[in-house]
Design goal:
Layout: H1 2-21, E1 23-24, H2 26-36, H3 38-59, E2 64-75, E3 82-85, E4 88-92, E5 96-111, H4 115-181, H5 187-221, E6 231-232, H6 239-243, H7 249-259, H8 261-281, E7 287-299, H9 306-312, E8 315-323, H10 331-397, H11 403-438
Parallel strand pairs: 1-6
Antiparallel strand pairs: 2-5, 3-4, 5-7, 7-8
């Protein structure tokens, strides 16, 4: 029996530790997301591919060296011939022969209008662009994570408000039942109290459902597919966080233009277009290449030794070639024009992203300012509505106020509490986003 209880207690403690292990802080969620997100991992592989392409283009600047050998066997079944000396057969022509050839050669592009060097620069820019794409995705995940975290915290606060409201409704309903039994409250009024309590129960269920839904969205963002309990650490949202100074739009925008990865990515597109134009222009210029080779061979038809044959047959040579484009069916001109068009598109893309960035920052600033002002007013309204409702509840319980007045007071309190919570968390979120865009 004792062993059985110990086993149960151990299982309970293990379960408790497991549940606690699934309660995540914002930093833990962010680290896990940046480490395990599939899209981010794919972008990382894309960057590795771009890096390998860069290394290949750098290696192409050096000469190449290749060794080739051909080994052949030939059979001539009807071939006849012999050598006779002093009435004696000296040699007989062989019907089967074996031949081998060896070549060691290399070539080097001396000059092609700097296309090879510009290709290295272009691939380097592509590798930087792939890195910025990863940062853009990481920043996007961080923004989504922050939004869901704030929504979860806001929903949990809303659950607490709904629980307090339901508790007050149950107290009023119980008091109403007592008043109904003694004849000081009508059945219709008691039904309204019961209906209000049921509505508050529904509101609580709805608030809890919102929390579960946002947790589900957060779990999906983290790409966690198990069925374990999932929760986040509740961070206390203080008044100081909601009432802190709001950064100006211009200061955030100026910092964001310099630091945001999507802007850097767009600038790299302009640089890429400039390099592609230089590569395209180089198609008008000649290409100079050097080549050299050393060849030799041997044959079984030769009576000399294998090494002697290779030595006697050694042939070393080299040369250069010049390729001058005369008529390329407009290929170079088309490539130059396309590069110019690509540059114009990249410049327009920068302007578009800067405009979008300014609009996003302005929107966050306006929401932060408006909700901060609303929070200040809602905080006073909540305190006033709470005091008024407490007084109404006391008066209702002694029969000085009717059910209509009580419910109106409760509605005002609930509305004020919800407005305060929404303004508070929206302000904190928008200020955090302004700081996020500024870094």
């Amino acid at each position: 029996m004792t062993k059985y209880l110990v086993t149960i207690l151990g299982a309970i403690l293990l379960l408790s530790q497991t549940i606690q292990a699934r309660t995540w802080t914002y930093e833990e969620c962010l680290d896990y997301c940046l480490t395990n997100n599939i899209s981010l991992q794919k972008l990382g592989l894309t960057r590795q591919t771009a890096f390998e392409t860069l290394k290949a283009s750098e290696a192409a600047l050096f000469p190449s060296l290749n060794f080739t050998t051909n080994q052949n066997v030939a059979y001539q079944p009807w071939k006849q011939g012999m050598t006779i000396q002093n009435n004696e057969v000296q040699t007989v022509t062989k019907k089967t022969s074996y031949n081998g050839a060896y070549t060691l050669g290399g070539n080097w592009t001396v000059w092609n209008g700097n296309r090879n060097h510009n290709q290295v620069k272009l691939n380097d820019v592509a590798e930087q662009a792939a890195a910025e794409d990863s940062i853009v995705k990481a920043r996007s995940l961080e923004e989504q994570l922050a939004l869901l975290f704030v929504r979860i915290l806001y929903s949990k606060e809303a659950v607490k408000v709904s629980e307090k409201t339901l508790e007050a409704s149950k107290v009023n309903e119980n008091r109403g039942m007592e008043m109904y039994r003694v004849g000081s409250l009508s059945k219709a009024a008691l039904s309204q109290l019961t209906s209000q309590r049921a509505q508050d129960e529904y509101n609580l269920v709805q608030s809890e459902s919102n929390v579960r839904n946002y947790k589900r969205q957060l779990k999906a963002l983290l790409q966690i597919t198990d069925e374990d309990e999932f929760d986040v650490v509740e961070t206390q949202a203080t008044d100081a966080m909601a009432l802190q100074p709001i950064p100006s739009v211009q200061s955030v925008y100026e910092a964001a233009v310099e630091n945001r990865p999507e802007i850097k990515r767009a600038r790299l597109s302009v640089e890429s277009a400039n390099i592609q134009r230089r590569i395209a222009t180089a198609q008008y210029l000649p290409t100079v290449t050097l080549n050299a080779s050393a060849t030799s061979n041997h044959s079984s038809q030769n009576n000399n030794a294998w090494g002697t044959q290779l030595k006697n047959g050694l042939n070393i040579g080299g040369g250069f070639s010049v390729n001058v484009p005369i008529f390329d069916r407009r290929e170079a001109r088309t490539a130059v024009n396309k590069a110019n068009i690509q540059k114009q598109q990249a410049l327009l893309d920068i302007r578009d992203k800067e405009t979008t960035l300014y609009s996003t920052i302005s929107d966050f600033w306006i929401q932060a300012y408006n909700n901060q002002q609303q929070y200040k007013s809602a905080k006073v309204s909540t305190e006033s509505a709470q005091t008024s409702y407490d007084l109404l509840s006391e008066q209702f319980q002694v029969g000085l106020k009717n059910i209509v007045e009580l419910q109106e007071g409760k509605t005002r309190l609930l509305t004020a509490q919800q407005s305060e919570l929404q303004a508070k968390y929206t302000t904190i979120y928008c200020i955090k986003m302004l700081e996020f865009y500024k870094k």
